[in-house]
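Issue 218. Parser rejects a valid record. Input:
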Amino acid sequence: MVEIEEAFKHMSPAPLIDRELATAVSGDRIAGLVAVAANEHGVFYEAAFGRRNLALPQRMTVNSVFRIASMTKAITATAAMQMVEQGKLSLDQPAQEILPFLAETKVLDGFDNAGRPILREPRGTITLRRLLTHTAGFVYDTWNENMNRYAQLTGLPAARTGKLAALSAPLGFDPGERWEYGINIDIAGRMVEVVSGLDLETYFQQHIFAPLGMVDTSFIERPDWENRLTAVHARQLDGTLEPIALPPGAAPDREFFPGGGGLYSTGSDYMRFLRALMHEGELDGHRILQPATVALMGQNQMGPLNVQPMRSAIPRLSNDVDLFPGMVKKWGLSFLINTQPGPAGRRAGSLAWAGLNNTYYWMDPIRKVAGVLMTQILPFADPTVLETLDAFERAVYATAA
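Output the parser choked on:
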């Protein structure tokens, strides 16, 4: 119990939330975490527990910097919807009108007897709406065996490399046929770069981060983060955690910034973004989206299609993923939408998603409650972190009531 006692020295005045999170890091089950919760009146909880790196003594702090991976997607979608508001993009125009190379995109239909990819013309149109809802046909090799095989066979670079060749990946299915998580938001981010004339880092800083006061969010690792950057830990077969070395973030020879992942941020910065959404696109007098746009982003945009479980093709990066198992789930313009009340407190119609290194958020527009839970653990959908997320959420709603 030493870890819990030590953690309590760093707690905020919300004892129920504190106790759940202090327990979560006890015995190094989670190396360290930062949690933030807010309601319509502002942030009512922010605390850090554990250590940034289990190999070092420094404790986690509320201003620790995390690799937020796919939590980048909602910010990219926000930028895309700013372009829609300005008339520079349209949700249902063919995306190849902005990115002509998409006219050459084929569908991967498997492999022939010689192991060569079978490619064909797509039936359907890639649009921004389909990109933002993961129904355009692009997939991730992390959760798609065929794409994993194709990438290894052809040397297709990952989107995180910032190489434009990554966006020439084939589709895993015809546009509009189904939902599958993929590089769709990287394509959408590239559309923003083209029509705005700015790379995503510059665009985000000028049009989202600066207005919202997100001072510690960037694609580019900063020297002043040296004593705040958290280490990523890999869950071992025996359940223990080991720090792992990761390549640096955005490469200096990048050709684009990947809108599907790659940002560094803090719990407090990301909560400022969620609070802006909670307040219909405005925070502290700075508006980033119109209320009607925010409402549109939070509505089902995939029609009768449903979000499907994600089966891992690369176990070291992700477990199988099925958030809210058994529940019909929809997708808005870059958000998972639960169609029934969640078991830990969020109302039906809440918006949520996560990042590969086990970072999570939700925003409940009914109760006006939002939460952010930051850890740095692989593989994704770590059961211990998911249990902690549920415990955190229950305690947040109990505290906010």
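Fixed in the parser; the record now loads. The chain is about 25% helix and 15% strand.
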